[in-house]
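As agreed, record minuted below.
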Amino acid sequence: MAVFVASNGRVYTPSEVVERLQNGDWRSCVSDVDDGRELVEAGDGSLLLLVPYRRVDHKEKLRERRDVV
């Protein structure tokens, strides 16, 4: 399962993203169907970039860090 890391530093579950879009807290501006990124406008007019982050990605990064150390 993926979570979304936002440009504001917060992490959102897919259900939180859907809920915020459905109830009007966020408005979708641009979606990239190839990699799952989404640019949304928040209620205060700020833009947030949402980037999917999968557990597999995390494990690969940990493995890379071990190789570097």
Q: What stands out?
A: The chain has two helices and five strands. The chain has a mean pLDDT of 84.
